Amino acid sequence: MGNCCSDEPGGRSAVGGGGATSSQSNPAGGGGRNDAVDLFLTSRGYRGLFSQIELSISASNLRDRDVLSKSDPMAVVYTKGRDGTLQEIGRTEVVLNSLNPKWISKHVVTYHFEVVQTLVFRVYDVDTQFHNLDVKMLKLDEQQFLGEATCALSQIVTKSDRLLTLDLVRKDESAGSNHLRNLGALTVYAEETASSKTITELILRCSDLESRDLFSRSDPFLVISKMVESGIQIPICRTEVLKNDLNPAWKPVLLNIQQVGSKDGPLIIECFNFNSNGKHDLLGKVQKSIADLEKLHSVGQGEHLFSTAVGHNQNKVLKSRLFVDKFSESVQHTFLDYFSGGCELNFMVAIDFTASNGNPRLPDSLHYNDPSGRPNAYQRAIFEVGEVLQFYDSDKRFPAWGFGARPIDGPVSHCFNLNGSSNYCEVEGIQGIMTAYTSALFNVSLAGPTLFGPVISTAAQIAGQSLADNHQKYFILLIITDGVITDLQETKDALVKASDLPLSILIVGVGGADFKEMEILDADKGERLESTTGRVASRDIVQFVPLRDVQSGEISVVQSLLAELPSQFLNYMRTRHIDPKT
Q1: Is the N or C terminus of the chain more exposed, i.e. has fewer CB atoms within 10 Å?
Q2: Torsion sign, CA atoms 298, 286, 30, 48
Q3: What's the CA gap between 275 and 506, in Å, rounded?
Q4: Which pTM was predicted?
């Protein structure tokens, strides 16, 4: 994955805007993420991790639509939006006289883990009279349609050989039905571009920074941005905030060459003084390429920062300087490399059935099952997380629990199987979770209190057993809740114990409750969790977000939460020196 992060455990989240696991942090300094800095970056256009995927296409057993020769096929690749609209990515060349074409043209798509990216492939027989035209100029409605295939990008990249073969089909228009006919097959091969794996490691420091704080020295951090053709700066990376330091040396930064564009592409490195109100003071900046930074390191010299006065084009050279204390390049295993080697993400869900959700039979309840089919907040969260993660789990059997309710003729349970079974907790697919959830609403009595400890411990037990069995699996527990937990310390104890396991926990808050205690569990927002025995969590495994409505076209808050997972996954694998299986 294209990422920018510290190479030291505990420093990754400090510079990984995509949300790698965090270190100890405080509002202005230390080594952790900071909400004010993250908001500052997001407002300037920063987005999370990504990877470039190159698609190669071939087809077999196409239908022959020509009378005196075989078809002359061309393929068109699209992405399909949630609203069903198609956006063309590109077209292959035309292969003459072939029913089994292997197209040479490659098509690059940007892979985003946190969303389902639907691809549509359409194959046409190009009429002879158009063979001399550039394929971009061809009008598709003037060509003969041979068939189409649809899949999610995740279906391809999670295959061990990155190959996926799909049936080409078309609707039987003459019958006026949705009957699908097989029109041959289309095979797609996906390969990560080399730039997705090339990492540049930098150790940066500054000297003689200006002091902007009244009663102390500045609290500096760096933001690295790339310049695009329009002249706009796009942030791609930041360091941690170092408190009260005019000669800061930051933790190592990992830059993906793909993010930068090229070694000679211009980068803007800005040094800011942190302010808790989010209005950070610019202490100075430099414009250098990766190649320039390599030269600075080789000669051991610093580059003077400069400032530009508002309304003036003239730069003022400052006393402050930027040094590159380390520069190295390497190829690292990516997020997708693990899944090619057979690794899996296993999805688990735990649902809050406490009485504070309200009577499920009344429209004002958070558990209300709307006859119109409109999903409630719990169903939305299950679907938005599950639809992404299901592609990374081969058997699609998901453990599902409820907590805070009284099953029929039983005491209040803080971890009961959602399917009603006393023997097993798994259900079949996302629809199985939905069905079990709806059924449980009629078979349990909402009660309380809200306890997280039991479900976290149960999930940790499954992850621990998988680790003991030497399986290369990583587990994601989704907890959906409407209220404040009453077992905060017990939950902390469970999380500290689970922090050594291949497990991440997503907590989605629904309703209008006060979720301050949830933010305590999310160590991105404060000190790293500590158990009653004084043991500190080895890493942050919790991400919390309150569910809210989003405007059309926006990424949902749940999807933004999922964007954090690749970094957490890679942090776990790399710090434990676990390589992908070959």
Answers
A1: C
A2: negative
A3: 29
A4: 0.75
